[in-house]
Amino acid sequence: MTDFKSKIKTIEWIDTYSKMVDQTVIPYEYKFVNITGGQEMFDAIRNMIVRGAPAIGIAGAHGIILFAQEGAEKISDRNEFVKWLLEKAEYMKTSRPTAVNLMWAVDKQIDVIKNSKSDIKGIIEELKTNAVRLENEDIEINKKIGDYGAEVVPKGATILTHCNAGALATVGYGTALGVVRSAYAKDNTIQVFADETRPRQQGARITTFELAMDGIPVTLITDGMCSYFMKKGMIDMVVVGADRIAANGDTANKIGTYTVAIAAKYHNIPFYIAAPLSTIDISIKSGDEIPIEERSHEEVTHINGKPVCPLKGVNVINPGFDVTPHELITGIITEKGILRPDYVKSIREIFE
Ligand code: MRU
Questions:
Q1: Distance 131 CA to ligand 1 centre (A)
Q2: Catalytic: 243?
Q3: CATH number of the domain enclosing 118
Q4: Would you say the CB of residue 97 lies under 6 angstroms from ligand 1?
Q5: Domain count of the chain?
Q6: Could you tell me if the CB of 21 is within 6 A of ligand 1?
Q7: pLDDT digits 0-9 by tens, 178-227
Q8: What is the model's pTM?
Q9: Ligand 1 center from residue 186 Cα (angstroms)
Q10: Centroid of ligand 1 to alpha carbon of 148 (angstroms)
Q11: d(Cα 156, Cα 25) in Å, to the nearest integer?
Q12: Does the beta carbon of 170 lie inside 6 Å of ligand 1?
């Protein structure tokens, strides 16, 4: 089995609510939670019950349906309902600031609301149809990313990845781990090295979990170890996901990605980004314009609820993401092929 969760969606709309894998408890538990309200969805995104750029996008789209259902119960005037719902949509976009897929997917729902000719009930049905379409498209897109990416994976390669850009960060299959899955289906001698990814440990908790479930060989390392293994010649390529890619190819991804990219460049190891086109924000020229999320200090000072440093007299800073400059990126693997430098040109052309 090389297709973890191919039949199960990480996040899925069910009649009147959103069903999702609770990512805060993996690997201790693998369970689903039902999100039934708009504010509850906002909190689920912010508190990372759902996480990973494409999955957050779908969660945002579901959040608009949840708010719409609530609005329909208390507002009968259509114009008033639409005005109220559009305000809630803008609010939903603020649940996490860096992954542009959230804004992209909520904007898709805003388009539905603005273009609808239906009554309130009809608008809700159209929002549901749109969300389910986005869910299904996400899996298809990831499979295409996987297939394009597999073409650049050398035989028997060891692939380093950072954070989790897998099935659990998307509706299914994954972006960076989609590349791994497609490559493994062709060549079962490849393997993955997974960075632990402090502070939230998505690499340790989630990437190793889903790869082990698929039987794909995975070795867990801590974040500081990547250059050690690169120097030893044990890493053949790096593939990571992305939260937002600027028009010049600068890419925001989980904090620590930039360090991996610098180490890869130094050791002449190809460094690839795998992401859908919805992660590219052509409205911003460079990575300097990408908003970086600041998260709670407790993520750094504690592991599993236990302090790892003195809690008095120690300053803490916790940016959730960093930006890898485009010069360090060998290629951006998308559902329409692999973009290469010059990224200003290749990104502009793909959107033409
Ligand atoms: O804070 P997270 O866990 O949402 O961050 C996730 C990442 O940085 C992923 O690499 C990125 O969203 C791509 S997911 C396909």
A1: 20
A2: yes
A3: 1.20.120.420
A4: no
A5: 2
A6: no
A7: 999 999 999 999 999 999 999 999 999 999 999 999 999 999 999 999 99
A8: 0.97
A9: 26
A10: 20
A11: 33
A12: yes
For the CA of 56, the nearest atom of ligand 1:
4
Mutate to test the pocket of ligand 1, among 21, 143, 253 (most ligand atoms within 8 A of CB): 253
pLDDT in tens, 140-157: 999 999 999 999 999 999
Q: Are residues 50 and 162 both part of a single domain?
A: no
The CATH number for 334's domain is 3.40.50.10470
Ligand 1 pocket check for 99: Cβ under 6 Å? yes
Residue 198 lies in a domain: yes
